[in-house]
């Protein structure tokens, strides 16, 4: 579901005889974000499968629970609204990086997440949750958490 997917609007730009409507539902114009909110049951199922796969991955990788909620809420939020911005929670000393991550991702855009553009503060939040945190933990987190997560998101986008 990347920018170059053959969505209706783009099909029509290439060939004006093509309809720009969605082939799966009755939407008159199939614009970029429509892929994420198309009411067609098959596409709805695709989105549910993506959320389930991502959620399972986050559990398997021992993702901190508040970070897991934020990532899933962000993706779901984007599915519902292309301009989704997450409310930024008040800052406490334990979740500094998570809050910074939400602020950064709000700027980057939650729709960029499936393209692999994830706020780096999330990685730091995940790394710092390790009780044995030390200088090498950031690098380990990048290898074992960030890189596979980003490729998974990319696969489902
Ligand atoms: Zn549709």
Describe the structure.
It is a single chain. By secondary structure, the protein is mainly alpha-helical. It has two domains: 8-37, no CATH class; 41-155, no CATH class. It is built from seven helices and no strands. The protein has helices at 8-14, 34-37, 41-60, 65-80, 96-108, 120-128, 137-155. Helix 5 packs antiparallel against helix 6. The N and C termini lie close together (5 Å). 22% of the residues are buried. The model has no long low-confidence stretch (mean pLDDT 86). The structure holds zinc ion. Zinc ion (ZN) binds next to loops.
Provide tags for this entry:
single chain, 157 residues, mainly alpha, 7 helices, binds zinc ion
A few lines on this structure:
This protein is mainly α. It is built from seven helices and no strands. Helices cover 56% and strands 0% of the residues.
Task: Provide the fold topology.
Layout: H1 8-14, H2 34-37, H3 41-60, H4 65-80, H5 96-108, H6 120-128, H7 137-155
Helix pairs in contact: 3-4, 5-6, 6-7
This protein binds zinc ion.
User: Could you say which structural class the secondary elements and strand pairing correspond to?
Assistant: mainly alpha
Mean pLDDT: 86
Q: Whole-number radius of gyration?
A: 18 Å
Bound chemical compounds = zinc ion
Counting structural domains, the number is: 2
- Provide a count of the helices: 7
pLDDT under 50 segments (min length 5)? Answer: none
Q: State the distance separating the first and last CA atoms.
A: 5 Å
- What letter string, H or E per element, gives the SSE order? HHHHHHH
Helix content: 55-70%
The main β sheet shows up as: none
Measured by DSSP, the beta-strand proportion falls in under 5%
Annotation, overall tally of beta strands: 0
Morphology: elongated
